[in-house]
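stage 2 :: seqdesign
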């Protein structure tokens, strides 16, 4: 896995996969395919890198799409049609990425006959790289169709069938040639010349976007990170690591339809939902090399002290999540009652001492 795939861009790509309901890693395979296709068409290193970034982040705009339970079918379609616009804005705001990547993301769902989104461009009005990324995505969707996966040759036939309508004829011809000559690992990891992002800052911004999807969780990741860092310092744990884990917990809500998590944090009846969110966060983190070591802490954050031995950082996460959800006047009484059963006694007593000094 290259540095870009294993770092912040890999995390953004995996979150895009999660919101799209895809198997984790789809975005990075799409990125490798788009980059190799760009090379086949004569692209230089800069162009190849731009295509890789666009392929990796093509669906990150879904993090901004919130569809209410009462939305009509038309409202859902219109909301999803804006996803490429959101994605282009997110990509354009990330520092140091290759020029052109944001535009490629914006227009990769346009169709040659003008029926695509978001701008209903047609023919030569669609940039070549965007049109090529649309072909790469459709091909990979056919190959990875959960109901009817296809061999590469069959998937190409599906692309050819849309030639002149959805896809540009000359690009379909070039893609068919590319697939016929591509190595077996055409969607495998690919080293590209992409500047490394500030991973901590990128992670914080991504967590904030996920939080903002629901007014009840807006700003939560930063509140958790601040409290976790302070508490970690009192417990002789790594404050920076505790802060990063707190932000990564937001990944548990990286899905198009996730139930609200504003339940009582000490309720036994909500354990299943807490566990599902923790496991979702851990799964996304585990799929990205830079964050894979964080996955066990995230998964364990839903455990209770009475379940057995618990990693101190995971115990800390469990406590700060509960604290954020509890009214301040209730926190002291209810946490004391749960120490030793739901929460680690040492973590709980340390937090309560902090609370007493603030009052």
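stage 2 :: out
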């Amino acid at each position: 896995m290259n540095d870009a795939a294993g770092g912040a861009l890999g995390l953004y790509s995996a979150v895009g996969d999660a919101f799209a309901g895809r198997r984790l890693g789809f975005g990075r395979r799409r990125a490798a395919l788009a980059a190799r296709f760009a090379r086949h068409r004569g692209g230089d290193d800069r162009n190849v890198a731009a295509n890789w970034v666009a392929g990796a982040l093509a669906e990150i705009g879904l993090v901004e799409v919130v569809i209410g339970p009462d939305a009509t079918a038309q409202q859902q379609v219109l909301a999803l049609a804006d996803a490429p616009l959101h994605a282009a804005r997110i990509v354009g705001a990330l520092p140091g990425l290759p020029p052109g990547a944001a535009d490629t993301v914006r227009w990769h769902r346009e169709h040659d006959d003008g029926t695509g989104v978001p701008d209903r461009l047609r023919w030569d009005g669609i940039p070549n790289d965007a049109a090529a990324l649309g072909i790469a995505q459709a091909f990979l969707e056919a190959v990875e169709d959960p109901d009817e996966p296809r061999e590469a040759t069959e998937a190409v036939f599906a692309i050819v069938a849309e030639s002149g309508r959805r896809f540009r004829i000359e690009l379909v011809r070039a893609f068919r040639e590319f697939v016929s000559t591509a190595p077996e690992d055409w969607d495998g990891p690919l080293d590209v010349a992409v500047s490394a992002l500030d991973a901590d800052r990128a992670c914080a911004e991504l967590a904030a976007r996920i939080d903002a999807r629901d007014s009840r969780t807006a700003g939560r990741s930063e509140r958790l990170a601040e409290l976790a860092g302070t508490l970690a310092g009192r417990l002789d744990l790594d404050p920076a690591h505790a802060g990063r884990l707190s932000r990564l917990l937001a990944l548990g809500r990286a899905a198009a339809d996730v139930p609200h998590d504003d339940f009582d944090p000490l309720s036994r009846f909500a354990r299943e939902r807490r566990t599902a969110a923790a496991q979702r966060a851990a799964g996304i983190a585990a799929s990205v090399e830079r964050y894979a070591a964080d996955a066990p802490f995230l998964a364990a954050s839903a455990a209770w002290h009475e379940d057995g031995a618990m990693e101190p950082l995971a115990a800390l996460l469990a406590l700060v999540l509960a604290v954020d959800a509890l009214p301040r006047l209730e926190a002291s009484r209810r946490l004391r009652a749960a120490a030793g059963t739901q929460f680690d006694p040492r973590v709980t007593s340390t937090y309560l001492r902090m609370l007493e000094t603030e009052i």
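stage 3 :: structure notes
- The mean pLDDT is 93.
- The domain at 199-358 is CATH 1.10.3210.10 (Hypothetical protein af1432).
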